[in-house]
Design goal:
Blueprint lengths: L15 E25 L2 H11 L7 E6 L15 E2 L6 E2 L1 E16 L2 E21 L5 E17 L6 E12 L5 E2 L7 E24 L38 E10 L8 E9 L9 E8 L9 E5 L8 E5 L2 E12 L2 E12 L2 E9 L5 E4 L3 E2 L2 E8 L12
Antiparallel strand pairs: 1-10, 2-6, 2-9, 3-4, 5-6, 6-7, 8-10, 11-12, 11-21, 12-13, 13-14, 14-16, 15-16, 16-17, 17-18, 18-19, 18-20
Amino acid sequence: MSHKKHNIPKATNSLQDECIRVQKVYDWVTDALTVRKTVLFTREQIKDIEEAMEDPGRRPLRLICEPPETPPIFPLNNRRSHDHDHDDDNLEFICEQVGEKRDVTISTNGGFVDAQLVELLISTDLRIVVVDRHGCIVTKSNINASVFESFVLCYPDGTDLFCKVSKIFCKIPSGTVLLNSPAPESFDIEITFCLDIQVEAEVKLEVLAKFCSPRDNDLIAPESVDQCPKVSFPPQCPDIFPRPNCDCSAEGEASGNTGEDSSATGRLAVLVNICPDCSLVDSELRGSFRDTDTSDGTESFNFTATTFDQDTLCCEETRGGLKLIISGEGKVDGRTVDYNFAVVDDNSGTQFQLQLIDRRGRTIFDSGVVDSDEGEVKVEDCVTFADIKVKRP
């Protein structure tokens, strides 16, 4: 991890931290679903087919199954149906969610994870055409085929599901040629839906980037004209936004007896979620102390951190692990205090220490170094822009 700060002035439009709005893909699944359907001819259609087969000049007849033409993969939400040139009827298809999603727990990669179960209805119109040897239509009809399928997806609240039918195939397994009377009353078709399912949400990402610049208008004959103004972008506000990333994060629950140098004897439990997603936003730190020695004047209390000072956040490497240190303000049973908190996650387990200071600067509680005997707090490294080696000229 790199913790050096460079104050060298940057040239205009150098690489810098930017916040961009993009569509994040939370899950992406492709699948092919096949359904079999029996098509029945009406009496009028059978009569037309048999009349055509009685004419030797029109035999053999052919069965044709026409699926709708699907749009390109992108854009994902393009669901326009195709209007065939030889008929004004539209062949439409849909892929849509039926009902509400349900939370499920599934086993994968040797563990259990939370996911969402959704039911999707995929349906399409098909055109069945019987033509003679010259390609003239003997009879035709439109039918519908549908399939209902369940999918387990990463589909958390706040995301949107897009189901794309990328291709539809239609096959007649029994053959497509009709040679002699009597005409068949029915035949089977197989319809295959090619699906592209994505779960997306609009998010803001912090990236290392620079503005693009347009090319010069140098592909036309030069003329004597007034010079156009230069392209300029609004300046970034680095002291306001985006805020710096955390060098590490800590999450978990742990408890243990206070250390040798503690100001009170008892048991301290902490709930830690500092720098979730490598940002101090939505960080959480809570402590609960249970006093086991009433003679030292300290009573049991609950502590909740209300602020986290970015400037005090420090991440250090230890033997086989990481150490996170943070300070800020909090509440002890309604009273405002300052705090210092440190947690170490290494090969020997979890250790942590909590100090509380009143408004006069007096330390009113110091847990000492607590060895967790129940639970653990994981401290993980955050890869920041400072860790990326950028080759500069």
